[in-house]
Amino acid sequence: MGLKCANCGEVSEKWQYLRLMDSAPLKGGRGSATMVQKCKLCSRENSIDILSQTIKPYNAEDSEKFKTIVEFECRGLEPVDFQPQAGFAAEGAESGTPFNDINLLEKDWNDYDEKTKESVGIYEVTHKFVKC
């Protein structure tokens, strides 16, 4: 995920992904966030937190539509790019077959569902960030 410092505009590609379970302490004992980063340019400590209660699945009915699947609390950071990686999961819409550790680096994935005897896949992954 590419992030931009809201204070000075510095863009960092350093953070490839954010883990839901990881938490880093904020300076001065102000709690914690999913990621804390000190800007190289302005030295400001910025953070972004995944609001886990907002995570929603993207289903077959949502195909070819944008849908909010997660919300972030951003303090001094603004997401500007997203490159999906490995670690995604899916379930066969009709069969319930689990497909784990899906790698979306190429923005496409396909497999075969033995229960339905059909090819399954995720194609042309796109994203957009919406400020609230």
Write structural notes for this entry:
- This protein has 132 residues and is an all-beta fold.
- The protein folds into 2 domains: 1-80, no CATH class; 84-125, no CATH class.
- It contains no helices and 12 strands.
- It has strands at 2-5, 11-12, 24-25, 32-33, 35-38, 45-50, 72-75, 77-81, 88-91, 98-102, 109-113, 118-122.
- A 3-stranded antiparallel beta sheet has the order 2-1-8, with no helix packed on it. A 3-stranded antiparallel beta sheet has the order 5-6-7, with no helix packed on it. Strands 3-4 form a two-stranded antiparallel sheet.
Order of strands, main sheet, comes to 2-1-8
For the termini, the CA-CA separation is 19 Å
Total separate domains: 2
Low-confidence stretches: 16-21
**Quantity of strands, as a count:** 12
Q: Look at the structure and give the mean pLDDT.
A: 87
Could you state the order of secondary-structure elements as H and E? EEEEEEEEEEEE
Structural class: mainly beta
Task: Please outline the major beta sheet.
Answer: 3 strands, antiparallel
* C-alpha-based Rg, rounded: 17 Å
Strand content: 35-45%
How many separate helices?
A: 0
Helicity level: under 10%
Shape: elongated
